[in-house]
Specification:
The structure is a homodimer. Helices cover 53% and strands 11% of the residues of chain A. Chain A is α/β, with parallel strands linked by helices. In chain A, the strands form 2 sheets. A 7-stranded mixed beta sheet of chain A has the order 3-4-9-8-5-6-7, with helices on both faces. A two-stranded antiparallel sheet of chain A has the order 1-2. The interface between A and B is large, with 36 and 36 residues.
Chain lengths: 371, 371
């Protein structure tokens, strides 16, 4: 099997998610935990049911505290290096559901500092512009303004800097290098940055003057940051943040992560419908070389990006998804038909999202916090 | 000769200031430059005349710009790890003189972040408290409130963070390690910190939207920070900051740097007069083992901390200082007499400074800036 590599700044190779749990030392979200979530929330979000959110740290403790009457705060974020694509929305969708079902406050960090430090070609004006574009997508998902704070690091630094310093003081270069794979050529801003990503984990505890549990829904590549946070927390007198991790949203070009660096294999929330349709119609599938061959051998949904899209988000009906799998396998359904089906679903979603995104422009300031 | 070692966080060995100029690659403040300063300022400050400020970077350029009608901004600061001692005041005294003579604005940075990161035992509350104590000493020196901004990094971070990020992006771990001697065990906050010390160098250029020259009076151990700043500046479109460097204020225990870590060998601005007097009476001198021997062989002013104090700051009259040197050498003057003389001078200074420091408490807010 091909070797794979996952850090917050690089994902390469074909990711084996079960091995990643072992490698990172996280826990699978198992049946009893899912049942407990279903009981407390009244239902299970699709991304949990489909095991897209599949790994966690201390989620059981978060639920213990919740049942004891100590509600948690949600924290997630975005590195604003470009427009939002569907892969970015996934953790935010679960976050939205958690806010609604558990009445949780949300802190949403836009790391314009990080992306400036990481991307040679981006200026601070670029990352600020993208941050505000991305914030519109967050608002469009329906978060509650009185329970949501969205901030850019460069604009909310005073509230975070002291907390970041506390984490930084406890984190050696050695540790950061081991966790993130830094080299001698890494810039000193990026080396420090993980402290900034830690800061919101402790913000509510500081504000409320009592230990406030924090739950972080994120893609699993962000876990290394929070390993550092969790190591530092007890020394600083803060509770360790808990996490639920999702798999990467598939690329339309095949491969395991939708990447902003290959725009044709990602669908952006700002894509015009015809562009999104074209990308889907050009997607990598598990089809055979000819119709005749596919009728004879069947397709391979397990490697098909169109099938992944449907199973991750766009086919909510389990029975229909299963039927599609069977029909593809049996050679009854061809790729064109599947793509058409997905395109309709995606365009329906996009049209609605873009409508809400447009409206979000007038409401954005209800969500933004600044120092 | 004993090897010596100078970084912003450690000075060890007997410092050879001429070799330090070579090692750091700075320039001596030579006779023509002193003459030019005297002409422009109308006089020469004692610390320049006595060659305590003895090294520079781009001071000639600062004066060129000044003569062209492009005035400079002064920038200096303090790492608030404890109370202010006389050694800290020295660069601020020259800074005060430069403000008066050249009508220059001053930015004064209190690096409460740095000292928290560097000193295991200090909390952010400790370094903030010391920062405010130190700020009183700055104000007591007579800076002009409408031309002076004093700030704590944790309170003025929003104004500085974007500038710090720009420097950080251009500075690799490799460079920072070479300049500061970092190890794998250095914490990631301290690795980033030099970017914060750079930030004020570019603040006025950002504010005014045109290149503003900056002159930094500081002890020579701070030079490494500004080598990084000067390397980054042209890439960021800012002028390189210029510097004038002073020698370290002598320790009363002998040795080349008054250190906050041996309180008996430093005089703090908060010391009660009897404490300051005791420290001076216990000072290391260049005296012989007995009065008889000293009458016979003479003293050694070149290794005497009392003589250093007088020559650095407390004997402004060149002729009287020379006469004292001669009398000591010739065995005519004994150490007790010299100590008494210094004690009177120091106590006179302290009483006046403490009076002004007390008054500064009511005026501090005229100087502080915060985000």
């Amino acid at each position: 099997m091909q070797e794979f590599h996952v850090t917050p700044w690089e994902v390469s190779g074909e990711v084996d998610y079960d091995r990643l749990i072992e490698r990172f030392g996280t826990s699978p979200i198992d049946e009893p935990l899912l049942e407990r979530l279903r009981r407390l929330a009244g239902e299970l979000h699709l991304l949990l049911r489909r095991r897209i959110f599949y790994s966690h740290r201390s989620l059981d403790w978060i639920l213990d505290e919740y049942e004891r009457g100590n509600p948690f705060v949600l924290y997630t974020g975005r590195g604003p290096s470009g427009h939002t694509h569907l892969g970015h929305l996934m953790p935010w969708m679960l976050t939205r559901w958690l806010q609604e079902r558990f009445g949780a406050k949300l802190l949403f960090q836009l790391t314009d500092d990080e992306k400036f430090l990481f991307k040679q070609e981006l200026t601070l004006e670029d990352t600020r512009r993208f941050a505000y574009e991305n914030a519109l997508d967050v608002v469009a998902l329906g978060f509650e303004p009185d329970k949501t704070e969205i901030f850019l690091n460069t604009e909310f630094i005073k509230s975070q800097y002291r907390l970041a310093l506390k984490v930084a003081k406890r984190t050696t270069f050695s540790t950061a290098r081991a966790v993130f794979g830094f080299t001698n050529e890494t810039n000193i801003g990026l080396i420090f940055f993980t402290s900034m990503q830690s800061a919101p984990c402790f913000l509510e505890t500081e504000r409320q003057g009592k230990p406030v549990p924090v739950l972080i829904p994120c893609a699993i590549d962000q876990d290394p940051h929070f390993r550092i946070t969790r190591d530092a927390a007890p020394h600083l007198g803060y509770p360790k943040p808990a996490l639920v991790h999702c798999k990467f949203f598939p690329s339309l070009g095949g491969g395991s992560k939708m990447s902003a660096s290959s725009p044709e294999s990602s669908i952006y929330t700002t894509d015009p419908p015809e562009v999104a349709r074209r990308k889907i119609m050009n997607a990598f599938t598990g089809g055979q070389e000819s119709v005749a061959l596919q009728r004879k051998l069947g397709g391979r949904p397990e490697v098909c990006s169109v099938y992944s899209y449907l199973s991750y988000v766009f086919e909510q009906d389990d029975a229909r998804l299963e039927e599609r799998y069977r029909a593809c396998r049996g050679g009854e359904m061809l790729c064109g038909e599947c793509k058409q089906y997905l395109a309709e679903r995606v365009l329906e979603f996009l049209r609605e999202h873009q409508r809400r995104r447009e409206r979000a422009k007038d409401r954005l300031e209800e969500f933004m916090v600044r120092d």
